[in-house]
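Q: How do we represent a protein-ligand complex in a form that can be generated token by token?
A: Start from the inputs.
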Amino acid sequence: MKILVCISNVPDTTTKIRFAPGNTSIDIAGIQWVINPWDELSLTRALELKDDAANGIKSVTVVHVGPAASEPTIRKALAIGADDAVRVNAEPRDAYYTAAQIAEVVKKEQFDIILCGIESSDYNGSIVGGMVAEFLGVPSVSSVSGIKFENGQPVMTREIDGGKETVTVPVPFVAIVQKGIAKEPRIAAMRGIMMARSKPVKLVEPVAVESLTQVLEYEKPAPRAACKYIDSENPAQLIGLLQNEAKVI
Amino acid sequence: MSVLVYTENWDGKFKKLSFELVSYAAGVAKMTGSSVTALSVGRVEDAELKKLGDYGAAKIVNVNNDQLAVFDSQVYAGVLADISAGKGSKIIILANNNTGKAIAPRLSVRLKAGVGSGVSRLPLNLNPFTVYKRSYSGNAFAHMEINSDIKILTLAQNSFDIASTPNTATIENTFVTIEASQVKTVVKNVEKQTGKMLLTDADIVVSGGRGMKSPDNWGPIVELADLLGGATACSRPVSDEGWRPHTEHTGQTGKIIAPNLYIAVGISGATQHLAGISSSKYIVAINTDKDAPIFEAAQYGIVGDALKVLPKLVEAVKEIKK
Ligand SMILES: Cc1cc2nc3c(=O)[nH]c(=O)nc-3n(C[C@H](O)[C@H](O)[C@H](O)COP(=O)(O)OP(=O)(O)OC[C@H]3O[C@@H](n4cnc5c(N)ncnc54)[C@H](O)[C@@H]3O)c2cc1C
Ligand SMILES: Nc1ncnc2c1ncn2[C@@H]1O[C@H](COP(=O)(O)O)[C@@H](O)[C@H]1O
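Then emit the structure tokens for the protein with adenosine monophosphate bound:
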């Protein structure tokens, strides 16, 4: 079996977001770019599955749709342990465009399991994974918090309201992963960093697809009113405010 | 032309979320001069279905096929695609939750319809069609244009006020043809809690962080949540330590919630935590450190030792509940 992990390149999650003049994009000065946290965890899980030879996983490939500037993120994924990478040389214009590009990569190379994160921390779309599956006409399982192999077959845990289900679908499929998929992201070791330099990154040009959405402008969240402090000796006052002022209890 | 809204029920009863979705759809229908068709899947009594009319649905389509008992995103997207085509829906609304996130992208590709996910306001503009959506994990909001003919919106939970706009809705029981072989998902096992309130549905959430020191100190957090009719939550280190179940962890890598009231006790307010709770209507912070970032997000704050403050709060709530 071959696994494909979709990775998105996002600002480090502690970044203070500022906008470029005109507010049509963010100001990228000084931003540290990282692998989207979910994608880092799904890569980790893919590698854990490959480590167990009984699972019969031949390779773990990462795919990224993005310009040359995001190469360091791809190298990081290779340093963590991915065998090879594909970069679609294009700005990820919107989810539809991006998913169409990833689907094209899958059509050419045939992967059995495609892992996507539940959400990119920049676009917050939660849509690319499901779109890839629909472009390919293959099953998708969302809210996946666990994946393992039983008798050579992938078995997933998915979160549902108030609980979880154990499910299977035939390969090839897309799993859209979230919390629980792996405990801690795997860290690149020195040896991995050295080896990453010689691992192949295949460059493919994008196919022509339109985008269906476009950000016109960004704004900051409305500033919250300053905090009102209540004396710690008299917390009953808080309850009064919540009841009569905020009217939430 | 109609606005199609996908509702969800929990053991045959609509979740609060569904009323919120229908209220939102009614707002969109008003803007676009159309009417609301609500879609309900599963076994729901007519009297319950009619409730959707109270929030503005003009038509209620009820689909109750056996093949829909297992949630298969491909099959569900197909049902929505068929029904929206039948109704000529140009705008389709779902919740930005597990189900909505599973269906919306597939439906998008099928209908070539752009998705505005996690919208928290009515469209800002109809021409170009512009939605207001969360981005950068809550650190920014985007005005995003959707330029396809059909548009799909997923509504951020608890972001739109439920509004009663009584309508006598007609119920249409529809049967859709689904071949058993189309259902690719096989469910081997289900573990489901019953009775307990869902964290994502709760209006009030009391949440504890590492400042609570030990799992043995959780008594007053649970008691306060119970007294207020709310749910309990926690920060990530707390669930990582096994002090509380993983289902309670809120934040960027946990659940994203937006209750009316979020009480953060002994939580510092790291950006990754705030990413999961910053859409709450009111945030209360209780922390010994007056410089903790949680106070920047809070409207009400108590600088003090949670272990001393909490019992007093419990007493005060008991007093008003008398
Ligand atoms: C990629 C990534 C994703 C993450 N995702 C999440 C996430 O989803 N959710 C999440 O919560 N975290 C997440 N984190 C972790 C996050 O950065 C913080 O480490 C975490 O939120 C801190 O938890 P805390 O506030 O409970 O603990 P601490 O930061 O240790 O804060 C404890 C607080 O309690 C206060 N305190 C101490 N004693 C008392 C007392 N007696 N009474 C009252 N207050 C007291 C202290 O002043 C302090 O402010 C993530 C981190 C990374 C890197
Ligand atoms: N530019 C990209 N290249 C590769 N994968 C991506 C890209 N953007 C998003 N993804 C994948 O899609 C998931 C969800 O992204 P989104 O729909 O933007 O929230 C991410 O976690 C990635 O797995």
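The two ends of chain A are 54 Å apart (CA to CA). Chain A has a mean pLDDT of 95.
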